[in-house]
Hints:
Blueprint: H1 30-37, H2 40-59, H3 68-73, H4 87-108, H5 114-125, H6 127-136, H7 139-142, H8 167-198, H9 206-224, H10 230-247, H11 254-259, H12 277-296, H13 304-315, H14 317-327, H15 338-357, H16 376-392, H17 397-409
Helix pairs in contact: 4-5, 4-8, 4-9, 4-12, 6-8, 12-13, 12-16, 12-17, 14-16
Amino acid sequence: MHQSGRSETTSRQEIVYLIPQFCTPYPIPFSLFTETACFMPILIQTLYHRLCTIEIQQSLKLLDYSTPALFQTALTSAGAQCHQDYERLEFLGDSFLKMYLSLHLFTLNPTRDEGWLSRSRVLLERNKNLLKMSIHNKLPNVLLCEPISRKTWLLPTGTPQTQHVSDKSAADLVESIVGACVVSTGVVGGGKAVRVFFGDEFEESLTAYSFRIESIRLKANMLGSSMINQNSNQNHQLLRDQLFKKLGYRFNDNNLAVEALAHVSAIHIYGIPYCFQRLEFLGDSVLGYLIAKMLFCLPELHKPGKLSSLKSELVNNQFLAIVTFKLGLHKLLLHATPGLAHSLAEFGNQISIFKQSKATDTQKPLFWHSLPSAPKVAGDILESIIGAVFLDSGCDVQVTEHLIQRVLVQPWKSHF
């Protein structure tokens, strides 16, 4: 740049000669070099770690499903003392993984009961299994797990060397990467990450699972239609209409609506071939993921411990039972067990007595913990309905999230 301030355009072949007499010197103080030199190790380490994580991201074929910055965060531990670490992503990824595994098992095993499905999911998501995946993909090698020391820091050379990482931390990396993909590209990215780690037997999208479930249910409905008489059909239609009034969601499949409200004791009594246990298994994981997602997106950016605590309060049986009674869903439960009817009625009486004697206490946070323990079935009803809505909507997480916001979050957020 000449003193005149005029810019000159030159082609690449031309050579520009600067005449010293017409140039202005801009001296750089030596102190600037000494001050910035202190930050060079941090800058170089951050850049080196970014390049290493991009290599891992490329090897996993996840470049299109997570931003490089988030993927780097997914491979940064709290021990590195950086401004961000993987723990929040791991919280979200854990919930998404649980939902995806539940849906996979639910779809591929249409005749298995809730107990078998739960045990199978535990085997898939246990740390021992995730640890194998993490080591196989060399994730612990690129984990940034220690703070930088300017006294002992050396310029990194070559590929990352094997380092000691606890089994728990190594296993968490799989969930944090799943979480990074969910944040970047939603359920599409999360599904892709699950398939990368767990294998091609897993579908890459929720839509693919929805098609498979629809096909299975269509065959089951055709076989079961001959068992259902006209009176049962009318009762099922009435039940669907009542659910619409209470939830604001109208089921496309009457059988799903009825199944969501059918206790195991009601099988073959009300013209129902299934009970709600399988839907409760699925709904529990869907609810867990969507609550985790809502909490993760809060502007307060809560720490993982706070997120886990809030999620626990929002999905525990005591709170879900209160919501069930508030909506009157317990009155729609189909069952043939006198003892169950008595326990539900007794809990309802306890709620009424509590409201009358301690009216102001019902406005306090978490007031439901002052009540006797709710029957487990009371919370299961709401989870099974959430699972049914999820399937009925074609595994649409947005539709299911709107339902949860409408009946579970917005009316009760002042109590947390």
